[in-house]
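Whether sequence alone determines local backbone shape is best considered at the level of individual chains. We regard such an encoding as a compact summary of how the chain folds. The sequence in question and its structure tokens are set out directly beneath this paragraph.
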Amino acid sequence: MPSGGFMDLVVGATGHLGSRICELLRQRQRRVRALIRPTSNPERTAALTALGATLVQGDLKDHVSLAIACEGVEVVYSTATAIMSRAGGDALSTVDRDGQLALVRAARAAGVRHFVFISFPPAPGDFPIQAGKRAVEAALRDSGMAHTVLQASLFMEIWLSPALGFDYPNAKATVYGTGEPKISWIAINDVGEFAAQAPVTVAARNAVIPIGGPEALSPHEVIAMFERASGKRFAVQHVPDQTLLAQFQAAEEPVQKSLAGLARFYAAGNAITMEQTARAFGVTLTPLAEYVARVTG
């Protein structure tokens, strides 16, 4: 795909995944427009500028700004979510559903050639972030635009971190469910590689593609890897399936309901066979052992 005069738009550009996509696109000599907000982290916006990205102010809740951001754009990449946002007015309904739907409409009206959307595989139960993802997937399917939906498995850097109970510095781990179902933990950088490659991958056109890491490992197997790497015995606490279901049913606030739903997704497992997909995209998958070595080193 030649660089030409076209621009790529990255929505969610100041996040870990969005910034990585910007970096990968710039390495491919693409012209990148990064959607930022006035409240965006200054260090992250400076890093985008240093990459050579063009910054444009906008917000998924400001639909007029999306029309401006999409002008002259060839490919849109959207990673934005309000699941962990504390910014005023951000909510799963206004960002992950209505905002993303508005972005699809703006992209279609601007003549965008390809839309790459980051989602996750179907999870048990009905909860807000999943409902938003499925609504956007359906809108893309009906939009007439070429599109790729990447349904990413659990990010190893997120779910195997102290923030979500995997406290490897202190050799403690909270495990959702029995810890036996296998999960294809995926590296954030690999999701970025799949996204950057999607517009030039034949198999990605108008496709919904589950993506994960090179091997599926149960949480218990992951803990054993950390124990071998660190030389420490982990204290493991399980949250039983029944407890997860009770928390899910009791949750009323949208973010809490969604986090409970995602914890049940973890407990159920998500094993994905990746050889053919990785080959089609030309992506070399990051083994979990590499992440373990990095964070325990």
User: Anything to note?
Assistant: DSSP finds twelve helices and ten strands in the chain. The chain has a mean pLDDT of 95. Strands lie at 7-11, 31-36, 54-57, 73-78, 114-119, 146-152, 166-167, 172-176, 207-211, 235-239. The first helix runs from residue 16 to 27.
